[in-house]
Amino acid sequence: MSEPELRVEDLAVELGGREVLREVTLEVSGGELVGLIGPNGAGKTTLLRSTLGLVRVRSGTIRVSGRTPNLGRRSVGYVPQRHEFAWDFPISVEDVVLSGRVGVIGWGRRPGVEDFRAARDALERVQMHHLRARPVGQLSGGQRQRVLVARALALRPRLLLLDEPFTGLDIPTQELLMDLFTSLAGEGRALLMTTHDLAGALVSCDRLYLVNRSVVAAGRPEDLTDPRIWIDAFGFRPGSPLLTTIGVTGADVR
Ligand SMILES: Nc1ncnc2c1ncn2[C@@H]1O[C@H](COP(=O)(O)OP(=O)(O)OP(=O)(O)O)[C@@H](O)[C@H]1O
Asked: Where is the signal peptide (predicted)?
């Protein structure tokens, strides 16, 4: 079997003197859309940032396409949470998308024909090419999210890391993006996505990791129907109607 695009083994991370992740082992292969789910503060974003080499890890290993995070970074597209981007910066949609290729273009160098082609392809995939000249500060929340996805796609990444890509989006935009993520997996890319949309993740992801500092459970959605897994990972109240809402059977566990 080929090497997974992302392999994390026994990862431990400390931030501000506090253990944020421990004993995290996971992998994502090309062709998979994998969900990373867990409550607020579970360490999901920290795990994505560790994969990008942005966080110093205490112990464990991370391999991106078989390489260390710093060396593998050029094959990784990252979609941060929308509020993390400086939207008041006076640049166009196309410039933001081109900035996703800065690792290829080189700092201070001008984009070439291939860079513009990659940006156009990425914008077309999120149906935003017609707005390429618009200043990003004038976009709606859904349009901004699509630009961030295009920026990550402009790199033509083998691994795509998505941090809560559906937050605050209307249903058509969520569906557009979910269809795109499914297509990207179908093309052989590897996708790791954090989300608080548990029902959506159960329907759309090939596999899920339930994380709360460590991996509480992992598997295909059909293997995660024991309500105790969800109670342990999320602190659901036993018997909570929300368990039924996300389609977890046996919600009468008390
Ligand atoms: N720079 C930092 N310094 C100290 N602690 C941090 C730092 N960044 C995050 N943390 C802490 O690490 C823990 C995990 O945060 P993280 O953002 O990874 O969680 P998350 O699962 O992505 O949460 P959410 O669902 O709310 O986005 C939290 O307790 C958070 O307060």
From this structure: none
